Amino acid sequence: MIRPIVFSSALILSALAAQADPAQTYGAECAACHGEDRLGGTGPALIPQTLKRMRGPNLISVITHGRAATQMPAFGEMLDEDQIAALADYLKTPLDSVPEWQPEQIEQTRWIDPDYTPADTPVFDADPLNITLVVETGDHHVSVLDGDSFEVLDRFETPFAVHGGPKFSPEGRYVFIMSRDGWVQKYDIWSLQQVGRVRAGLNSRNIAMSHDGKHLAVANYLPMTLTILSTEDLSVERVMPVIGKDGRKSRVSAVYQAPQRRSFILALKDTPEIWEVATDPEAEPIYEGFVHSREKGMIEGLPSSEGLFARRRIMLHQPLDDFFFTDDYRHLIGAARDTGRGVVVNLNVGREIAELPLPGMPHLGSGISWERDGKRVMATPHLKEGMLSIIDTQDWTVNETIETDGPGFFLRSHENSPYFWADVFFGPNRDLMHVIDKQSLEIVKTLRPVPGATVAHVEFTRDGRHALVSVWEDDGAVLVYDAETLELVKRLPMRKPSGKYNVFNKITFSEGTSH
Ligand code: DHE
């Protein structure tokens, strides 16, 4: 006899409660992997700051169908449509309070891989300085490419949702990679092994390496801090709260390395200041600003005998972010959001010195520079307009603009190449890549490698002979072009490859690459 299924009233009540209360659904179905506090565990943090930055299928679809090639299962059969929609809304609500993320909490997350054994010399025959790392965002891996043979030497798992450029130690042996969840991973290229991981922030923007390779700074949105780690063992050296002169807390939009200045430069999102943080106790005499501050006894946060991590504030008229630095690191151009203006700041004297008309959200962080007609120019794409601006970095004028087939994200060139490459990242032509002559500023060729597939971000090999282009799709590829003939020479299948980073070009601060 088939017995009718009888639900107890307690069960019905709990099912109704779960339906009504997405927090309960979260606790039952998600917390084991994503953490009771939604700050992540084996799965990523599920907080609006992180979720709204994630590209790809929307939240409802991920909950319903799961995420291919990850641990994220499909809940479509377990939860009904209303429950999934309520859960998605719940995940988009901010946390009631942001937990402490001080050295003690960070230290608890620090993990050194017990299987890591450092090699004395590279465990491969390839040129260790011509290694190129490819970040594959499709399944959260990095491929380690031999830049001569284009063979994949290793493919390792990264934390979830890597963003920004990985940063190499000055000799090129180690690389540090950051995820939007604030995890920092250290990897040894010579040994082809992960060294360890630490969670330096809860929602982070990017990382920067100090001039001597000893310190790694992590720019955080959540909490509003700069975390400085020891590159040796990923231990915490300092957590700096970021508070403007007016007392307002600020998110850090980005942190940059300024090797000649022996400092980190911070772009602050919520307060009209730039911060400079010294990475060398002896460095301050080279900065006018530091000398003045010191004379006036204004070095904050540290006794005046200690210069390491001493901070200098540069006051602005409004917050600036997305910096491009001149090669000598004396000047930066920052974008004043939604104003159509770029602002030039002289870092030595510590003040704004010029303004530039830059409409359509310039993406200055992707800027590159080169010599043209005896002048040093820089080029920047614009995220909201199909154009590139060419700026004279002596008199701070916009020399020329180049019309493109749509707004772009990244530019790249190399000292040995007469061309620079500009992607069209947004809009119907996002499958196009322009190749532009650095002197005539003419578009010499427009590539459409895979019709309909986004192509973006270029990196050159160490000698500049090859240009590597990402086909930014889940079943994507890195396409290797001859940088002179512009012919395709190789196709390397990859899972949604985003940025690519050549060790030599990065550690020598090549003028053709963002730093
Ligand atoms: Fe990025 C670099 C900020 C969206 C991929 N991005 C950077 C850097 C900053 C920045 C400050 C320089 C850091 C560094 O390398 O040390 N990015 C921002 C934003 O504010 C923005 C517009 C909005 C946001 O979501 O935060 C943004 N970025 C994106 C994307 O949507 C991209 C295309 C895909 C993704 O991964 O999220 C993206 N950003 C990248 C990449 C770099 C990067 C690949 C490194 C470029 C390089 O060649 O160095």
Automatic annotation (TrEMBL):
Q: Please indicate if the UniProt record lists Ribonucleoprotein as a keyword.
A: no
Could you confirm whether the keyword Cell membrane appears in this record? no
Q: Name one Pfam family in it.
A: Cytochrome_CBB3
Q: Which cofactor does it need?
A: heme c
Q: State the signal peptide span.
A: 1-20
Membrane-spanning intervals of the chain: none
What GO molecular function terms would the record report?
electron transfer activity; heme binding; iron ion binding
Can you give the residue ranges of the Cytochrome c domain? 17-95
InterPro entries reported for this sequence: Cyt_c-like_dom, Cyt_c-like_dom_sf, Cyt_C_IC, Cyt_cd1_C_sf, Haem_d1_sf, Host-pathogen_enzymatic-act
- Keywords on this record? Electron transport, Heme, Iron, Metal-binding, Respiratory chain, Signal, Transport
- Give the protein's recorded name: C-type cytochrome
